[in-house]
Design a protein that fits this description.
The protein is mainly α. It has one domain: Type 1 dockerin domain (Orthogonal Bundle), CATH 1.10.1330. It has 2 helices and no strands. The protein is globular.
């Protein structure tokens, strides 16, 4: 059986700091920076950070 966790960007079976770093690297850090994706600024503060990662990983069900 294969289980996929939303937010597990590195596929190690856990959502942790390394996934957060991949999330930030994929979507940019702040408004105006190259690669910034406003759709992933889930709290609308102009920065993609830990708060956005926590919102992302907690609001989507795990796929089993």
């Amino acid at each position: 059986m294969s289980v996929s966790l939303i937010g597990d960007f590195n596929g190690d079976g856990a959502v942790n700091t390394s996934d957060h770093l991949l999330f930030v690297a994929a979507f940019g850090l702040s408004e105006g920076e190259n690669g910034f994706n406003g759709e992933m600024d889930l709290n609308g503060d102009g920065t993609i950070d830990t708060a956005d990662f926590l919102i992302f990983s907690s609001h989507f069900p795990n796929d089993g």
